[in-house]
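Sequence in, structure out. Go.
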Amino acid sequence: MRDENTKMINIRTIQHYMYCPRRWGLLEINHDWAENAFVVKANLMHERVHDGSHNFSDHKKVVRSSVTLYNDLPAYNLYGVADCIEFVKNQKGVKVQGLPDLYHVKIVEYKPKPPKECAYHETDAIQVFAQKLCADFIWGCDAEGIIYYSETKKRVRLPFDSMYVQYEKALKELLCEMRQFIDKHEIPLRRKGQKCTGCSMKEMCFYKTAAYSVKKEIFQNVYEEAGG
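Output:
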């Protein structure tokens, strides 16, 4: 029997699954894809973050964009790319290969807009928590998680220090569900109450089929019998 934790999961797909399991299945299992204005806007923002122009260093910190991360422990098996990681000089920090000092590690994930009713989207927080597990694994640190919402130009510090256990439990449950669908090669059903208005995959998800017509069926049979 195959271990459900053997499949590597790309961190960015976890958020897709949380937003809509069916959309995630169409993307990751069926390999469908469609874009709309929301997708293009988000992609352009991330292109600017990952183009290398955010890389710099000064007497306080070293900043790197588009940082590859992974954690191959069986409990997680994750990989992905962080928008930005800040290595802040700290005498109580950790050693980072290729850098001369000790550092406190900060993960900064860029998102378009915050929710109206609270400080951050839980889907964003789970994504950054998965990145934290990878950063902690690579550098033996206790990485800080931050979301930068471009619309408000504000940073939000995520409560991983006080809610680590809750986020770890939630992430493991999500990974287990995702791997079960992947193993079965099964596209999840649409979730009850799912909001689909702004989804770029709406036409693929709710594809239209022509209504059955007796008249059309008869004419088709006659056409085929006539050798057409």
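Check: The CA atoms of residues 196 and 202 lie 7 Å apart. The chain has a mean pLDDT of 82.
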